Amino acid sequence: MESNTSPPAASPSIPDLIVEAWRLAAKSALPALPWLVLLSLMGGFYKWALNTGAGGTMLTLAALVVLFLAGVQASLTIYRAMIPDAKGAFMALMHMNLAIYLAFFFVSFFIFFFVGIFGVVMLQLSGLVDLAAEGADQQIPAALAGMMSTPYGWALSIVYATGLGGLAFLALRLLLTGAATVKTGRVMVFRTWRWTKGDAVRFGTASLATHVLPFLVGYVANLAIVSLAGQGEIALFATGVTGLLLQAPFILAGHGLAVAALRAVNPASDIA
């Protein structure tokens, strides 16, 4: 007897994820444009305040807070344009972002604290500098540069790359948090962890076309603008603005991949 149960839908391939991410990016570009412009303007203001010191630490911190809030609103607008039945609000997405930043801060601190200690040990073992000697701190940069072409430097590079790989893996396992938070209206952080089990390589490969490539293109383009604009106060503000404007494709496609990935794992019963 034939069963009426339909077979499960095939999981989207890497090219399918990339195409869907960029389709969603194009769909959300116009609704998000005003907030992306505001985000870029605040990026310029923050860069100007940070580099000039005008207004002191309080102004720089205030600019950073406004930059963060504009980013949350831009992200919310993008996700709502991509997810028609989204229930999420500003506060839920803001809390999710703060939780993610805090998690990455602590994980990064412990990873790079260990890498730093390991680097000190390798530098001492290399014999290129005696860290206990007087004036050793002035010799460290040259000794570190010389060490990198030795087995001690290779070991340090491997440990450093492993730390970065761990952070990248964490980011991929938490890829769905923003999209899931906006879809459900609830703060979703590590609750999405199980949904990405076994998909880190697939999502990571797709992210080369949605995150890495557009980010590098925008970054290199802004470096060229910076070299032409110089370091005057107006140039600092302008290149801060262009630095974020040129990352609009990265921002949009990154959100697009998160939504496409959320649909791919299809945890409908978990987030309804």
Automatic annotation (TrEMBL):
The keyword ATP-binding does not apply. Keywords: Membrane, Transmembrane, Transmembrane helix. It comes from Hyphomonas jannaschiana VP2. It comes from the Bacteria. The chain crosses the membrane at residues 32-50, 56-79, 100-123, 154-182, 203-228, 234-253. This is Glycerophosphoryl diester phosphodiesterase membrane domain-containing protein. The keyword Manganese does not apply.
